[in-house]
Amino acid sequence: MPDPTQTDALYDDLLELALEAARRAGTLLRDGRPADLGVAATKSSPIDVVTEMDLASEKLITGFLGEHRPNDGFLGEEGASIEGTSGIRWVIDPVDGTVNYLYDLPSWAVSIAAEKDGEVVVGVVAAPMRGETCHAVLGRGAYNNGEPVRHRPAPPLSQALLGTGFAYLADRRAAQAEVVRTLLPQVRDIRRGGSAAIDLCDVACGRLDAYYERGLNPWDLAAGTLIAREAGARTGGRPGQPASHELTLAASPELFVQLQPLLDELGAWHD
Ligand code: IPD
Ligand code: CA
Ligand code: CA
Ligand code: CA
Question: Which intervals of the chain form a coiled coil (predicted)?
Answer without folding.
Answer: none
